[in-house]
Amino acid sequence: MAASSNTFRLYLLLALPTLGLAMLPSAGLCATNEPAPTATQSANASPTRLIELRGRVVCLAEEMSQRHGASLPTGHEHLYGFKTSSGEYYTLLRTRFSEALFADARFREKELLLRGRLFPKTQIFETTTIRSIRDGVVCDLYYYCDICDIQSIAPGLCECCQGPTELVEKPLPTETKPN
Length: 179
Ligand SMILES: [Zn+2]
Ligand SMILES: [Zn+2]
What we know:
Helix content: 10-25%
Radius of gyration: 18 Å
Strand content: 25-35%
Strand order of the largest sheet: 1-2-3-5-4
Largest sheet: 5 strands, mixed, barrel
Bound molecules: zinc ion
CATH architecture of the domain at 47-171: Beta Barrel
Number of helices: 4
């Protein structure tokens, strides 16, 4: 009993910073089939590129400090970004689809395959799909509520029953066609 309430508290802690965000486009999966609101592009939007990045989430401040001697205050706030296996750095926009990269430390321990948009004249990346690479196999990564049988990309409580979710890392079939 004590153990389960501790577990619940842990989930709550993990969920808290994102709860407000997760509640916004609420209802979504469970109550209605309404599609998630899509970002409206401004009229003069330049074309963006869809790309795939392989690498790891790093603290950009620490990386720039180590590589280029950028000043790093003691007790700095981590500035999470992405470092590809070829050594390129990207800034990650924090959205519902990338929230786990910031909020869940387990994502920062894995080799990842991110798919998303790179904006013109920037190294700013908007993540749409997160996958992991485990022992050379590409895996799907998602949070799962076994009560509702619902998958979610964002960490936190189940949108439907508000119960805890678990992180699932599931190998994809080897020859997956790009979406
Ligand atoms: Zn840091
Ligand atoms: Zn649920």
